[in-house]
């Protein structure tokens, strides 16, 4: 099999291809012949050596990647839900940048008939993240006012779809004007913060504040996101991409001075203030949820039921050749992309 390996943390030049023996599925595992791999911003952070769960669970060298789609090649003892040859998508929790991957049975599902393999590879991570944020933590209800930062991105568009499905009033925020169109089809209010004053516009659209705000920017918006919660509101924190400032030479390495400054500028929330203001701050990271198969199972099943009912749809994808993974990382880190990026093996 071919896989992408990172020997040591660093820039795009650390992403190298290697050929090794195929893995064999152990009991309860499924071996997938991978056709498409979803790319996530977390993979870029892992490449830089700053992703905590990658350091804790994998170490170096590292094969990043959380999700794949392809065909079942072989099944281990006790596997009963899929057969050899079936089209499946899976959450792998690392090691997905490869053309063969073994995953535990509960982390994969059959692909809905009309979805392409690229669309399927782009589904598990962002939709499970959005589901966990809005349903497991946010308890989203019809009529809720929901603000979604980075709404045109991978997780962002999944959040928009799930919030619309839940009959919430959605405001999406984007950082570049060319992204506005990708959200129009969802019938939501959009704030283009490159042209509009984000917080006065948010205040105009929700004068009493928001019931839910999904924020993965980190220090640039967290404090104001908290201030714009309605009483009883919840701030859902699931990432910190605003901390990643490009290095000056565009090599994809960590810009340490800017990173350290961002760390100091990240707000610390006070439980005393949260209690008297009736505002909650909730954080999570799915890559630390591998020990909770019940959560992944519930989320996956719920999402695929909604997909079957036509309430949610695969995200728009931009594809890259497997060996052009560096371009996919560079583009994702540029902050210009919309929807999902997918590698085709
Ligand atoms: N906690 C979890 O379990 C979990 C799971 C999956 C993803 N995540 C997090 O969710 C976020 C979105 O991930 P994604 O893969 O779907 O990426 P994405 O949203 O498709 O792309 C990142 C977007 O972030 C915004 N951004 C702001 N500052 C940025 C910077 N300095 N560098 C690059 N982008 C910047 C840009 O949009 P705008 O300029 O339009 O805002 C950019 O398009 C990431 O922070 C990721 O780590 C968390």
From TrEMBL:
Span of domain Enoyl reductase (ER): 10-343
Name the UniProt record assigns to this protein: Medium chain dehydrogenase/reductase family protein
Matching PANTHER family: QUINONE OXIDOREDUCTASE-LIKE PROTEIN 2 (PTHR43677:SF4), SHORT-CHAIN DEHYDROGENASE/REDUCTASE (PTHR43677)
Pfam families, per the entry: ADH_N (PF08240), ADH_zinc_N_2 (PF13602)
CDD domains xrefs: MDR3 (cd08275)
Organism: Natronospira bacteriovora
Gene3D superfamilies, A to Z: Medium-chain alcohol dehydrogenases, catalytic domain, NAD(P)-binding Rossmann-like Domain
Superkingdom, taxonomy of origin: Bacteria
InterPro entries cross-referenced by the UniProt entry: ADH-like_N, ER, GroES-like_sf, NAD(P)-bd_dom_sf, Quin_OxRdtase/zeta-crystal_CS, Zn-ADH-like_protein
Species lineage: Bacteria, Pseudomonadati, Pseudomonadota, Gammaproteobacteria, Natronospirales
